[in-house]
Fold this sequence. Notes:
A three-stranded mixed beta sheet has the order 1-2-3, sandwiched between helices. It has helices at 7-15, 23-34, 44-48, 69-72, 87-110, 126-136, 166-169, and strands spanning 55-57, 62-67, 114-119. The protein has a domain at 20-37 and 61-140: Endonuclease, Chain A, CATH 3.40.960. The radius of gyration is 18 Å and the shape is elongated. The chain is built from seven helices and three strands, in the order αααββααβαα. Keywords: DNA damage, DNA repair, Endonuclease, Hydrolase, Nuclease.
Amino acid sequence: MTDRISKERRSWVMSRVRGKHTKPERLVRSLLHRLGYRFTVNGPKNKNLPGKPDIVLPARKCVIFVHGCFWHRHQNCRIATTPKSNVAYWQEKFERNVERDRTAQSVLAESGWRVIVIWECELKQLDKVAAHLVSEIPRHSELELPESIEDELLVAETSRSYGKPKSETES
């Protein structure tokens, strides 16, 4: 099946797909901060490490990738569908993405970095994600997991206020 929209329109649509500061990334950052971890998102380590991790905890030599199930092909996930038009293009693109992820994670692990991958669909159960992060990230003994992680307590920025100057969002 061929693409139903023009090449220019498809290009415009794809240019609107965010690559950084997505809602899942902001949610994980908020969760990490609430758990007491400190990290970088735009630091020099983020840009120089293989795969450009979404979150880097330099003091703990740990990186976190927040993967979208569709783009990174989460196995057996209902979100990881394949478009019905231009199937060959999408298959090739997805294979390149998965191979690039695998290579970057392998290089990071060989360099002594702890690599954690959080999938978009896992964020529906924040308690499990929080427990996973606490068990995987090396931590100081005084850092304790809160008794419960509730959605309304997270301070993830909304898409409405994210990136706007403070004066616009205070009203």
